[in-house]
Amino acid sequence: MKITAIILTKNEEKNIERAIKSVGFCDEIILVDDFSSDKTIEKIKSIKSDTQILSHDSKGDFASQRNWAMEKAKNEWILFVDADETISCELKSEIESSAVSHQSSVCAYYIKRRDFWWGRELRYGEVAKARNKGIIRLVKKGSGEWKGAVHEEFATSLSVGQLEGCINHYPHPTLKEFIHDINIYSTLRAHELQKQGKKGSILPILLYPTAKFILTYFIYLGFLDGAAGFAYAFLMSFHSFLVRAKLFQYTRIDVS
Q1: Please, which residues have CB within 8 angstroms of residue 123's CB and are 6 or more apart in sequence?
Q2: Are 154 and 230 in a shared domain?
Q3: For the chain, how many structural domains are there in total?
Q4: Residues in Cβ contact with 94 at an 8 Å cutoff, skipping those fewer than 6 apart
Q5: 51 and 96 share a domain?
Q6: Are residues 99 and 199 in the same domain?
Q7: Apex CA 13: angle with CA 11 and CA 17, to 5°?
Q8: Are residues 245 and 197 in the same domain?
Q9: Could you tell me which residues come within 8 angstroms of residue 156 by beta carbon, excluding any fewer than 6 positions away?
Q10: Do 214 and 143 share a structural domain?
């Protein structure tokens, strides 16, 4: 079973070394760079010279970026890893054991993801679903496609299996970077909703962030993650606020 690892990057010089080294067991590594302005490319070349580096403008649509990259892979199986993620030793062993290739009816796999933030692993709240069920990241080429410009997901009508090993995720190492990312992704999400014909209004601006915080902090037990759980829930509800406020601005206010 031969695997192509695909990593999307944009200004990831701080994270990329860890990600590339963790997928070193793959037969092919493709890095799709969204025209980084930092030293991401130089860092990649110094780590693993045989990494295939492709430059491609995502235009804010990460699903299209992943689908474009998938067509470039020469192997049947593709492992998608983000630049701020690593493949755990357990997952690497599970994939290398050939257990995957023996399940002929399965064309994609859920992989559990562990999020590490503020010096601890988050177990509840916003990250609980990805931690307990996982997200589809190992797929057979041609078995489906990525959908959703932001927070994209792999869609397939074929059988999906489950792996037990985990992807380790190290997002937003500082509050400054977290807030910076929230500003970027909320803009992309607001534009996505605008393209879908959604209109901004005051009520969602008020209700969505409140409901988001109650859901992730209380219903999904985010409070069990201590101070980190509170901060994460608060910031993600702030993201929800920015999405709806920006949508209101784009569809209701003339800012030309």
Answers
A1: 131, 224, 225
A2: no
A3: 2
A4: 100, 163, 164, 165
A5: yes
A6: no
A7: 135
A8: yes
A9: 107, 108, 136, 139, 143, 144, 145
A10: no
Q: 35 and 95 in one domain?
A: yes
How many Cβ atoms sit within 10 Å of the Cβ of residue 93? 12
Structure tokens at 230: 């509170």
Question: What are the pLDDT tens digits along the chain (256 aa)?
Answer: 899 999 999 999 999 999 999 999 999 999 999 999 999 999 998 987 789 999 999 999 999 999 999 999 999 999 999 999 999 999 999 998 865 666 678 999 999 999 999 999 999 999 999 999 999 999 999 999 999 999 899 999 999 999 999 999 999 999 999 999 999 999 999 999 999 999 999 999 999 999 999 999 999 999 999 999 999 999 999 999 999 999 999 998 865 4
**Residues 99 and 123 reside in one and the same domain:** yes
The length of the chain in residues reads: 256
Q: Residue 219 has which token pair?
A: 């219903």
Domain end residue (candidates: 114, 148, 168): 168
Q: What range does the domain containing 160 cover?
A: 3-168
CA distance 236 to 240: 6
Closest C-alpha among 108, 112, 97, 118 to residue 175: 118
Residue that terminates a domain, selected from 168, 183, 203: 168
In whole angstroms, what is the distance from residue 84 CA to residue 128 CA?
A: 18
